[in-house]
Design brief:
This protein has 415 residues and is α+β, with helices and mostly antiparallel strands. Helices cover 50% and strands 12% of the residues. A five-stranded mixed sheet has the order 1-2-10-7-3, with helices on both faces. The chain has a three-stranded antiparallel sheet with strand order 4-14-11. The termini are far apart. 46% of the residues are buried. It holds the Pfam family p450.
Length: 415
């Protein structure tokens, strides 16, 4: 059934849309053509403008003093926005880097920046490659068939980031479950409950865990990233408990879930495009380009929101002060004006100006780590991969924020 422009706008606010690539990209392509800055008034949500063109999203990201992250950094229901606003007034709300603007953003970002700089990443790479080898070995041990998303991709980047933080391995499964509940709050399989209050309970459990970790790392620093966060000072003062816990939450969740979605979606893309798989196996020097193509193809972060400080215009559309804009990254990464044949998976795509990591001052802190993990995994897998095919239907997660395939049954032969 062909969508109308208004139906396409409403689809952006429907978590189920993001579990159906065909429907998602049909809606986004229509908006890019007919209404690239489109007003959406979806039931249950505060209104917003959907921004779907690459250049417009770049413009908004560049002008971070005009378009602020606060007070609405993500698309959430009006009820959730209300609850979060109330908790913020009480000083007990999640406040991560994606919630902040300068000067707070600049100072808080510096707390973890050194851990993700290229030099630090080069030092971490041998460990990442060792873990990648371990998880390819697990594929081999699985006997030629597995749910790649659940059994392999969900665990490899989780192990990397939680090891960097310094969390005990005994807590990894708990962190995975909490992350799935946090980002899968709209998914029938992952959600803890349907109400917004139940979704907030997940955050409270994260906070309780990380407050205990903060106490321990302040008492006994161990030289890991958790110790750096726990003992950081901003504006001359220690981070308060909720800012500390918020920092842990964004590192521990976004630091692995986005990468696991891209590893899963990247493998799916290679299965669906066997010519590109053969090309990559024959020309392994293309791997850095292939990794960025996987990132563009999957675009695990679906949106961020910005709020206009002053009356302004975007592509000739008047945006009043106080209005919110949704930046649609999957749409930007399929923009026909920027990408040659954007619906073709091209392992050697160059240039590749994708916006999956954002742009400007809010560019993803963990981008270098994500690239290292993706490259390490596929450089371990592809030389050992004799054959691979789907063993069932892939299943996507229902979300409006972070996600990809939650099920990828595969059948394969590994040497």
């Amino acid at each position: 059934m062909t969508l109308t422009v208004d139906e396409a706008g409403l689809a952006i606010a429907d978590p189920k849309t993001y579990a159906d690539d065909r429907r998602l990209h049909e809606a986004l392509a229509l908006l890019r053509r007919e209404s690239p800055v489109h007003h959406v008034d979806a039931p249950g949500y505060n209104p917003f403008w959907a921004v779907t063109k690459h250049d417009d999203i770049m413009h908004v990201e560049r002008n971070h003093e005009l378009f602020l992250n606060a007070p609405r950094p993500l698309l959430a229901t009006a009820r959730f926005d209300e609850l979060n606003r109330s908790r913020a007034e009480d000083g007990i709300a999640l406040r991560t880097l994606i919630h902040m603007d300068d000067p707070d953003h600049r100072v808080f970002r510096a707390v973890g920046a050194d851990w993700f700089r290229p030099r630090a990443m080069r030092g971490l790479e041998p460990r990442v490659r060792d873990l990648a080898r371990r998880y390819v070995d697990r594929m081999a041990e699985a006997g030629g068939e597995c749910d790649f998303a659940q059994e392999i991709a969900a665990h490899f980047p989780l192990y990397v980031i939680l090891s960097l933080l310094g969390l005990p391995e005994s807590d990894f499964d708990r962190m995975l479950k909490l992350t799935q509940e946090l980002f899968g709050g709209d998914d029938d399989e992952y959600q803890r409950g349907a109400s917004e209050e139940e979704k907030l309970e997940v955050l409270l459990e994260f906070f309780a865990y990380f407050q205990e970790l903060t106490k321990e790392r302040r008492k006994n620093p161990t030289g890991d990233l958790a110790s750096a966060i726990a003992n950081a000072r901003v504006f001359g003062e220690p981070l308060n408990d909720f800012d500390t816990a918020s920092y842990y939450v964004i590192v521990a969740t976004a630091g692995h879930d986005t990468t696991s979605a891209t590893i899963t979606g990247g493998l799916h893309a290679l299965i669906e495009h066997p010519g590109q798989l053969d090309r990559l196996r024959g020309h392994p020097e293309l791997m850095p380009l292939a990794v960025d193509e996987m990132i563009r193809w999957v675009t695990p972060v679906k949106e961020f929101m910005r709020t206009a400080v002053h009356d302004t215009e975007l592509r000739g559309v008047r945006i009043p002060a106080g209005d919110s804009l949704l930046l649609s990254y999957p749409s930007a990464n399929r923009d026909e004006d920027v990408f040659d044949d954007p619906f073709r998976f091209d392992a050697g795509r160059d240039p590749n100006k994708h916006l999956a990591f954002g742009f400007g001052v809010h560019y993803c802190l963990g981008a270098a780590l994500a690239r290292i993990e993706l490259r390490a995994f596929f450089e371990e897998l592809l030389p050992r991969l004799d054959s691979i095919e789907l063993a069932g239907e892939p299943v996507g997660i229902a979300t409006t924020f972070v996600g990809g395939l939650k099920r990828l049954p595969v059948r394969y032969s590994l040497s």
